[in-house]
Amino acid sequence: MPELPEVETVLNGLRPALEHKHIEHVELRRGDLRWPLPENMGARLTGSTVENMTRRSKYILIGLSSGETWLIHLGMSGRIQVEDRTLGQFHHFTAMEEKHRHVIVKMREGACVSYIDPRRFGAMDLCATAQIENHVWLRNLGPEPLGNHFNLDVLFTAFQRRAAPVKNVLLDQKTVAGLGNIYVCEALFEARIHPNRPAKEIAKEQVETLYHKIVDVLRQAIAAGGSTLRDHQQVDGSLGYFQHNFQVYGREGAPCFACDGKSEIRKIVQAGRSSFFCDHCQS
DNA sequence: ACCAGCTCCTGCTTGC
DNA sequence: TGCAAGCAGGAGCTGG
User: Fold this and answer.
1) How far is the CA of A271 from the C1' of C14 (A)?
2) d(Cα A202, Cα A238) in Å, to the nearest integer?
3) What gap in Å lies between CA A42 and CA A104, rounded to an integer?
4) Angle at A254 between CA A251 and CA A258, to 5 degrees
5) How far is the CA of A170 from the C1' of C8 (A)?
6) Which of A99, A159, A221, A228 could potentially form a cystine with A242 if both were Cys, beta carbons 3.0 to 4.6 Å apart?
């Protein structure tokens, strides 16, 4: 599922249910997602207070009073559902959701948080908060695209040593952290850069445009609650709506909005992933 | 160091 | 209608 905007949306929805609340009970319905869950995860979470919640790239980081941080990645199909019966919130889980509802966390204050992940490409871990920067999932990540350390020079410098197609370089989380297939396609279209262009050959002026478009498209997607294609929902079950703003993603064969039908959107496969673009507008 | 290809898993869509 | 192949938003691993 989720790229940065979807994870940000989930995190913000999760905040009122968890932040400064107490974990009363944890039910693990299976011992693994993509990898085994951390040793004694249930016991290590139970009894803790959630002190803070942040996002790094596509990871949700939940800081606990125990001194550990709970890392959650939603993989491709992971989602989180929050219910709070003390607030009259009740979710009816479909048979499919119930079947893949792998982790259930009950808070003393009333919220019940379910992690649902059919494909199980998601992952969880626990790590001493003091060591979080060195966690193997986080230590090689590039800068946050909406943070202070991402700017034109960082992006241009990263591009200079990469001969691979710019599409692939942007999907590499070491270049910039949190982009996925959808938002890379959209940002490249907005910057009018062909996804096949070798990153190192793109002029600085165009990289500057791309830098701004990456930030724009992510901000807009967050404002729209992310994009709902199949799996992504907000934690109350409501849908994101940025998919209605897609210019190229998933629009193979449809007329390009920018050149007014002079060309239609094409799809190619790069590094095993579909790229959507307009031949006429992007070069 | 970089890069492309393969892999994990399940459900939905497409094509015969 | 039935069935198999192909496809999906991520990312670690392998071998060149």
Assistant:
1) 15
2) 40
3) 10
4) 90
5) 19
6) A221
DSSP string of chain A, one letter each residue: ---HHHHHHHHHHHHHHHTT-BEEEEEESSSBSSSBPPTTHHHHHTT-BEEEEEEETTEEEEEETTSEEEEEE-TTT-EEEEEEGGGT------HHHHHTEEEEEEETTSEEEEEE-SS---EEEEEEGGGGGG-TTTTT----TTSTT--HHHHHHHHHT--SBHHHHHHSTTTSSS--HHHHHHHHHHTT--TTSBGGGS-HHHHHHHHHHHHHHHHHHHHTT---SSS---TTSPPP-GGGG-SSTT-TTSBPTTTTTSSBEEEEEETTEEEEEETTT--
Q: C10 C1' – A87 CA distance, angstroms? A: 34
CB atoms within 10 A of CB A143: 19
Could you report the per-residue pLDDT of A113-171, keeping only the tens digit for each?
A: 999 999 999 999 999 999 999 999 999 999 999 999 999 999 999 999 999 999 999 99
Q: For A83-92, what is the mean pLDDT?
A: 92
A183 close to A215: Cβ distance less than 8 angstroms: no
Any atom of strand C under 7 A from CB of A3? yes
Nearest residue by alpha-carbon distance to C1' of B4:
A271
Nucleotides of B under 7 A from a protein CB: 1-12
